[in-house]
Amino acid sequence: MRTIRFTIGFILFYSLSYAQQDPIKVEGNAQGTTYHITYFDSQNRNLQPEIEKILADFDQSVSTYITTSIISRINSNQKNVIVDKYFVTCFKKAKEVWKNTKGAFDPTVYPLVNAWGFGPGKKQKIEKAKIDSILQFVGFNLIKLKGNKIIKKDPRVALDFNAFAQGYSVDVVAEFLNSIGLKSYSVEIGGEIYAKGRYSKAEDWKIGIEQPYDNKEQLNPLRAIIDLKNRAISTSGNNRRFIIENGIKYAHHIDPVRGYPTTNNLLSASIVAKDCITSDAYATGLLVMGLEKAISFLNKHEELQAYLVYSDKNGKYIVYETSGLKNKIHEVEEIK
Predict the structure, then answer these.
(1) How far apart are CA 61 and CA 68, in angstroms?
(2) Gap between the Cα atoms of 162 and 237, Å rounded
């Protein structure tokens, strides 16, 4: 999964509330990043061993950084690879979002991700002819799921679920916590979050949204705090994972049509949805679309709420938020 320095870490767990019952907190490293889980449990159980086992099994399905994972074996065209429930869920969600975003979100960009140096593969020399040749086998219409196997129209097609798999891993852990009867918790993995119930009788969970300043090494100051209850939030932006060549900044979000990193004035997209796989996928898709298309898309999809940060022609940072967040967002300080 994503390394810690490349984590899309614009969202972090941030609680200002006082709980009557002491919360239990577990944290650690997984998927090349960190996780922080807080829950209330009358039995006072330490669930970390079970959670880490779940995350390890998850990586064996969809991590492109593990050569023996299901997705890596499919990408290398090994024969008779049988997919599991994690892979199937990711594939079906990817197909749904690909259709809804008209191709702005496309997990078959993996060869381009590697070529640009944002994946486990070695960065290549970027030339138009090289990009054009890769684009011939980029497109979600070139691959399909048939039963429990993947069928490719071109063996060079390769998948990358990293744009939303981390969000899905949050949902998987949340499903486990639900299965053992927990009613109030927050799960954060690499900056993607799902919060259930309330932190206290008086307040929902408080989640921070960072300011989108370029910063690969550490967290940025908070831009806003959102109240979250029975919802997920994910942020995608271009201030954590990027390269600079010949004085030009290239962000890691690749436009599947052009084959080049996105170039628009949308700096970050924080999406609130019913589950984290959805919020994570659409946060990426909207960032690739750019501001105008993203707003138009959101107007047609009221099931998604968004907090977008963009820059105007003078370089000033401006916020756009959907109506469903008007009473849930608390500004911390102005973006300068």
Answers:
(1) 9
(2) 14
**What Cα–Cα distance (Å) separates residue 142 from each residue in 22, 133, 159?**
51, 15, 11
pLDDT tens digits along 283-314: 999 988 989 999 999 999 999 999 999 888 88
Residues whose CB is less than 8 angstroms from the CB of residue 333 and which lie 6 or more positions away in sequence, other chains included: 221, 222, 223
Task: List C-alpha distances in Å: 332 to 2, 109, 133, 307.
Answer: 28, 36, 47, 14
Contact partners, residue 298, CB within 8 Å, separation at least 6? 286, 304, 306, 322
**Is 192:166 a contact under the CB 8 Å cutoff?**
yes
**DSSP sequence for 163-210:** TTHHHHHHHHHHHHHHHTT--SEEEEETTEEEEES-SSSS--EEEEEE
Q: Considering the chain, what percentage of its residues have pLDDT values greater than 70?
A: 82
Token pair belonging to 90: 């990711």
d(Cα 222, Cα 335) in Å, to the nearest integer? 10
Predicted TM-score (pTM) of the model is: 0.85
Amino acid at 284: T
